[in-house]
Structures are given as structure tokens and as C-alpha cells.
Amino acid sequence: MRLRNKPWAQKLVLEHPEALLNEPDPEIKIPWQERFADFSKPLAIEIGSGKGQFIINWAKQHPEMNFIGVELQTTAAGMILRKKLADQIDNLQIMCADAANIALYLPPKSADIIFLNFSDPWPKTRHEKRRLTYKSFLDKYKQVLKDNGHIEFKTDNQGLFEYSLQSMNNYGMLFDFVSLDLHQCNSEIYKQNIETEYEHKFAERGNRIYCVHAHF
């Protein structure tokens, strides 16, 4: 969903290059070792972080890890940045960037988890290549993830969920966890679940939340 432009967000983004990479050049290597106090910690990446509720709470609850939130919209990235600065979250970096370049922004085999939360379903067939679980994106995730790394995907969109299962399966991925109704599941995964803004809204309406964890 496109957010209304907020001039303060653009200003904040430009004022804090130490915390947020704004449209980085994919041809220039990013010095992640300088952007985190300890880049050897396990790394989690959320692609499409929205307003940041999920990635902010994950980073707060897991100081033993590093986090990168990737968000295309400047306004949304500014909202995440404002929360990060207010709460002084040192283990979170933000990128206002296109996820299609993710394998150029990060070192190979550097990430432990990639989160895909309530991604745009792009329901029209002609837009299939834009879906974040399309095979070309899976190629990029495989480059970035460690050999024991995995993807965690959540959506309320049944069509996108079914497509994603098929896409991952066709790619040769293996499924560690699949739920057709995460919020009615008694598994440890649900007990540890952190909701996104969309997830909270959709669950309150009674929508099912679909979830899959998978690895290459």
C-alpha cells in the first residue's frame, strides 16, 4: 500500500545516513562491518518492512542478532528510522532500496533469516515477476542466505500463499513449517510470533494468516 508522502520523513532520512542507507548504489560495496558494532552476530533481513512494527520489535527482543529492514518507500523507511532513533536500537540498520538488488547489497552467505511479511500479492499474471517469491527473487535470497539459513513468509492472501508454496517447491526448497491458519496454531512458532501492522489488522477481521518456513 502506498503511503501518503510525509515531508518530515524525507528530511529525517537525509539527516541520518549512519542509520539508514538511502537508495545505495548497487555497484558500491556497503561496509556493513562499520554500520554494526559486531557484524559477526546472526543477521536477519526483512524485505518490505512497512512502518516497521515487526522489525523494530524483533530487534528489541533479540539484541544477540543484527537486523536490516529493506523498504522501498521513503515515508515508510522514515517511520522505521524515527522509531529506531527514539528507542536507540543499535542492532538495526535500514535500507530504502529495491529488494531486487538485495544480492548486490549484502555479502554472499551472510544472512541467517529472510523475513517476507505481507508482501504485495501482484495478483495479475503479467506482474508475476514482481512477486517476492518469484524464482528470480529466490535466486537472490539463495545467494544472500547462509547454507543453514531460511525464509519465513507470512501473508493473509491465499492466492499468493499457494503461488509461493508452488514457486518454492519448484525451486527445490524444503519446507520446515507450513500453517494455513497461524493464529489458530498451538506450535512454538506461533507462541514466538511477532505481528506486523497488517497482520494485526487482518487477524482482528478474522482473516486467516498463512505461514511457511523454508530453506534451500
Automatic annotation (TrEMBL):
SUPFAM superfamilies: S-adenosyl-L-methionine-dependent methyltransferases. Pathway: tRNA modification; N(7)-methylguanine-tRNA biosynthesis. Residues 126-131 are annotated as: Interaction with RNA. Keywords: Methyltransferase, S-adenosyl-L-methionine, Transferase, tRNA processing. Substrate binds at residues 124, 156, 196-199. One of its GO terms (molecular function) is tRNA (guanine(46)-N7)-methyltransferase activity. Its EC number is 2.1.1.33. It catalyses: guanosine(46) in tRNA + S-adenosyl-L-methionine = N(7)-methylguanosine(46) in tRNA + S-adenosyl-L-homocysteine. Coiled coil: none annotated. GO terms for cellular component: tRNA methyltransferase complex. S-adenosyl-L-methionine binds at residues 46, 71, 98, 120. It holds the Pfam family Methyltransf_4. It comes from the Bacteria. Catalyzes the formation of N(7)-methylguanine at position 46 (m7G46) in tRNA. NCBIfam families: PRK00121.2-2 (NF001080), tRNA (guanosine(46)-N7)-methyltransferase TrmB (TIGR00091). Belongs to the class I-like SAM-binding methyltransferase superfamily. TrmB family. This is tRNA (guanine-N(7)-)-methyltransferase.
